[in-house]
Amino acid sequence: MHFEDPAFTIPTGTPAPLDPQIAEFLRRMAADASQYPRRDTLSIEQGRANAEKVRLPWAQGGPQMARTVEHQVATRHGPVRVRVYYPAQRRLPGAFMYIHGGGFVLFSIDTHDRVMREYAERAGVVVVGVDYTRAPEAKFPQPLEECVDVLRWVAASAGELDIDAGQIFVGGDSAGANLSMGTALTLRDEGVPLIKGLVLNYGGFGSNLFRNSVVRYGAGEYGLSLHMMIWFRGMHIRHGKDFFDPRVDILRADLKGLPPAWLVVTECDPLHDDSIELERKLRDAGVDVASKVYPGTAHSFLEAVSIAAVAGEAFDDTARWLHAKA
User: Fold this and answer.
1) At what angle are helices 20-33 and 44-59 packed, to 10 degrees?
2) CA 146, CA 27: separation in Å to the nearest integer?
3) Residue 302 CA to chain centroid, in angstroms?
4) How many C-beta neighbours within 10 Å does residue 184 have?
5) Which of 177, 183, 208, 288 is nearest to 8 (CA)?
6) Can you give the residue ranges of the Alpha/beta hydrolase fold-3 domain (predicted)?
7) Distant-in-sequence, close-in-space partners of 26: CB < 8 Å, separation ≥ 6
8) Cα–Cα distance, 270 to 211 (Å, whole number)
9) Could you read off the pLDDT of 119-129 as tens digits, one per residue?
10) Fold of 20-325
11) CA angle 153, 98, 64 (to 5 degrees)
12) Contact criterion met (CB below 8 Å) for 196 and 94
């Protein structure tokens, strides 16, 4: 079977049961989101503002940092805000550059503030959050090129940032996982080995939406819907040919020569099958890859760490992987 072929079984299968704590996370999120009109019926600015309000409770609490410093980083497209988190106890000398999700359109380093503090604390590593310019103001390849430029800045500014430039990890969730892979592919093709390893949290890695997991979990009950996926993609992509660019459609790319990768895979997620296929293709390409499917989890489940034990488990698993690859 070719990776672009529709990949359905008949029937597509009964959805797996949600972890009760994740179900509560989705219930609360849906209740808060129901106060506002659908995002696609509003201006981009209002949709983003409402999304920030819905996400705010989940970004609060959690680990306290020794210090947090913001920078404006010059990129080929203009300045990008970057937030650097320094944990009280550092056990890795390098840094973990984190690229937030949100379909390339929504969210920010503010919505993902707790996610990044959890990584900093649990791994004992400096975390660098990237507030790339979102679509539709910035369509592909601008967000990707900004992330590439920020990564180069992190390496070049290692002394100022008090990190080891030889130990830089890159990762993100959802759209951020896609941008992480695009960043790694860009630097590999340029012969610039800056990335020690990749952390890929429930990413969207392909343009083929005709997959079992999209049908099984894409109707809207599990947070991310097919409706939103299409809206996000339409905002991010300017030309039809870009859907097939291997920096967007990662499953189309030649994956040889990439750094080690760790995939956090959600079971109850339209994007589940993308991660399974990416792991297979990475392994076939000779890349050092490992993954774990977290039963009963839905898209964005790491943000539920304040109430869901499985989110804490995933953070700790990633921290162990970072240490193993450092």
Assistant:
1) 140
2) 35
3) 10
4) 27
5) 208
6) 97-302
7) 18, 221, 222, 223, 298
8) 8
9) 999 999 999 99
10) Rossmann fold (3.40.50)
11) 105
12) yes
Residues (pLDDT < 70) of the chain are 1-3
Instruction: Please provide residue 20's backbone torsions phi and psi, each rounded to the nearest 5 degrees.
Output: -55, -35
CA neighbor of 81 nearest in space, from 100, 58, 57: 100
| Cα(124)–Cα(24) distance, integer angstroms | 30
Contacts 24+ apart (CB under 8 A), 6-9: 6/208, 6/210, 6/211, 7/208, 7/210, 7/211, 7/212, 7/273, 8/210, 8/211, 8/212, 8/215, 9/212
- Bridge partners, residue 71, by sequence: 82
Kindly list the distances between the CA atom of residue 162 and the CA atoms of 93, 127, 281, 311, in Å, as whole numbers in the listed order.
8, 12, 36, 29
Domain positions in the chain: 20-325
> Do residues 124 and 91 touch, judged by C-beta distance below 8 A?
yes
| CA separation for the pair 74, 153 (Å, rounded) | 8
Cis previous bond, 136, omega within 30: yes
Contact 249, 181 (CB under 8 A): no
Active site residues: 174, 269, 299
Which residues are bridge partners to 126 per DSSP?
A: 95
Contacts of 172 (CB under 8 A, 6+ apart): 98, 99, 100, 101, 178, 179, 180, 199, 200, 201, 203
The single-letter DSSP state of residue 249 is: S
Q: Which two tokens stand for residue 93?
A: 């000398």
pLDDT digits (tens, 9 = 90+) for 131-171: 999 999 999 999 999 999 999 999 999 999 999 999 999 99
- Under DSSP, the state recorded for 301 is G
* The predicted structure's pLDDT at residue 91: 98
